[in-house]
Amino acid sequence: LYVSANRFQTQFMDAVNIKNKLTDFLHFYQMIDVLIIDDVQEFAGKSGTQNAFFHIFSHLHNLGRQLILTSDRAPKDLEGMEERLLSRFKWGLSADLQIPDFETRIAILKHKLEEKNLVINDEILDFIAHQIQHNIRELEGALNKIEAYLSLTGEELNLNQVKKMLESLIKSKKNIDPKK
């Protein structure tokens, strides 16, 4: 099961607010073979959620089940988390994922184009990979815009059209640039 920390938190709060549903909530999560929690840092400062997750984590770990947690920082840098959770997070393998380099972004774009059965020239791919550097989802979003354009118009693309099409995405990134 893949679930965002936000969704887990909402489900937990709903279970707490409905009589006799907390046990069902805990039982549901304790029956999972592989649990993926995205953005676990969002549990910070939420003692009830952390307590429930601690029991789920411990139960699944004792059964030898797989737990995969993502966070925007390493376990040692998570503030507002109970120490007993942090110590369990440190048991596992931590992998620091970095921003993909240019060649990796090109490879991702080409792979996504192949999946979508689309052909876009290298000049356009280079432009997208140079302009969108920090987020794979934004690369996919750019391709989705291009795919929608192609399916609606049936026209071939040129670089100027792509620049105009992606202008809001690229402009918004430049406005948020923390280096300026």
- Compute the number of strand runs: 3
Q: Calculate the terminal CA-CA distance, rounded to whole Å.
A: 40 Å
- Main β-sheet, spatial strand arrangement: 1-2-3
How many separate helices?
Answer: 9
Overview of the structural elements:
The protein has 180 residues and is mainly alpha-helical. It has nine helices and three strands, in the order E-H-H-E-H-E-H-H-H-H-H-H. It has helices spanning 5-17, 22-30, 47-62, 83-89, 102-116, 122-131, 136-153, 159-165, 167-175; strands spanning 2-4, 34-38, 66-69. The protein has a three-stranded parallel sheet with strand order 1-2-3. Helix 1 runs antiparallel to helix 2, helix 5 packs across helix 6 and helix 5 runs parallel beside helix 7 (136-153). The longest helix is centred in the C-terminal third of the chain and has 18 residues, at 136-153.
